[in-house]
What does this fold into?
Amino acid sequence: MDQPNQNELEVLRLLWNRSSQKPGEIQDAFGWDIDNGTLRSVLVGMVERGLLTRKRNGRAYLYAPKVKRETQLRQTVRRLAEVFTGGSTGQLLMELAEKERLTPEELKQLKKIARGES
It folds into this structure.
């Protein structure tokens, strides 16, 4: 399956955080302006690709994520690792840790994870 594009990822983010929603609710919460027709096209495409489910609720549809957040995160990280580090997730994480400004608490948590104490 192709990786979700930016609009699709935003839809998933909103639905992972708020469960089933109508298109108008999704549009109102969207992180940037999106035309109603564009959003509806995105939603239909996501249903067809198996990323969302939809069920009729009165005159509207309710959309819900079919793919779990953790599953999509894993797939996205693997794809990033393929592109940037030849497939090494560990190398990708090390590069991110080197390049990003992590808080002392985040560094502490990473050390716990590395020791197997997650």
Summary: Strands lie at 52-57, 60-65.
